[in-house]
Each structure stands twice: as structure tokens, then as C-alpha cells.
Amino acid sequence: LKARSKLMMISEHGDERGYLTVIEGNKTIPFEIKRVFYIYGTKEGIRRGFHAHYKTKQALIALSGSCTIHLDNLERKDEIKLDCPTKILILEPNDWHEMYDFSVDCVLLVLASHLYDAEDYIRDYELFKSLHT
Ligand code: TYD
């Protein structure tokens, strides 16, 4: 059976000053964080991603605004809306993913289990299908 990406809610520390939310590697999320990147200023109507990975696991959080993640592991497809900073999507390497419907103020934070390696990307959907069926 394929590993399934999953949505998690994490707790926030709120008080009269506002909110603070924390993510710890190998604790809040099931991997050590090796890389962090963020996607922002996304133009209207843009869809990006269009790949799966061989080994990289990721955690996605919309720190501000919202966006939707299309997931496809060939057994099932899902559309996950990220619209609050306490919602985390744990994205398995075997999920083809596309991100769309970004609000103008969306800041999408991505925590990754591996350093950037172009060789870890599967960008051809036909190849993805052949590897996973
Ligand atoms: P790209 O893979 O096109 O983004 P997406 O999957 O969201 O469509 O990445 C955009 C550019 O950034 C591309 O030139 C590769 C580069 N990049 C890095 O150099 N390091 C990274 O960790 C990532 C995620 C991208």
C-alpha cells in the first residue's frame, strides 16, 4: 500500500499578544528538516508543482492566505485547501502534486527532508505512472 499524504492540525500558543505556532523536526512532523523554501507573490490563475519525488518528504503550511493542493498517488486523488497557519500537509514523495488557487497574500511555507536535488524530481506524469503501477 502506498504511503498517504495527510493533513494535520497543530496547536497554537495564543495569548493576549497574539499567536505562536511551532514545528519541530522528527517530532511535530515525521522527518528531519534539511531545507526550507516558500512560495509567494503567485500570480492569478497560476498552477505549479507538477511533480512527485523519489525520496523527499515535505510539509506544507499556508502561513498567510490560502491555496489548494492537488494530490494524486494513482490510487486516489485529493484536493486539500490550506487556509490557516495551524494546518500542515505532510506530503509523501509518492504523491504527484500541483498547487493552485493561490490568494494574492498566500505565503506557502515548505519544509523538506532533503537538500535540493533536481534528480529527485519526477516531472513526467507518464514516467510517474509507470513507476507507481
Ligand atoms: P520549481 O521546481 O519550478 O517550482 P514548482 O515545483 O513549485 O513549480 O522551482 C522554481 C525554481 O527554483 C527552479 O529554477 C528550481 C529552483 N529551486 C531551487 O533552486 N531549490 C529548491 O529547493 C527549490 C524547491 C527550487
Task: Describe this structure as you would to a colleague.
This protein has 133 residues and is mainly beta. It has one domain: Jelly Rolls. It is built from 1 helix and 12 strands. A hairpin with a 4-residue loop joins strand 7 and strand 8. It is globular, with a radius of gyration of 15 Å. The structure holds thymidine-5'-diphosphate. This is WxcM-like protein. Pfam families: FdtA.
Portion in strands: 35-45%
How many E-type strands?
Answer: 12
From the N-terminal CA to the C-terminal CA, the straight-line distance is: 11 Å
Give the strand order, joined by hyphens, for the main sheet.
1-9-6-11-4
So, the CATH homologous superfamily? Answer: Jelly Rolls
Per DSSP, the total helix count is 1
CATH architectural arrangement: Sandwich
Oligomer: single chain
Model regions low in confidence, pLDDT < 50 over at least 5 residues? none
Domain module count: 1
CATH class categorisation: Mainly Beta
Mean pLDDT across the residues is 97
Sum this structure up briefly:
With 133 residues, the chain is mainly beta. It has one helix and twelve strands, in the order ββββββββββββα. It has one domain: Jelly Rolls (Sandwich).
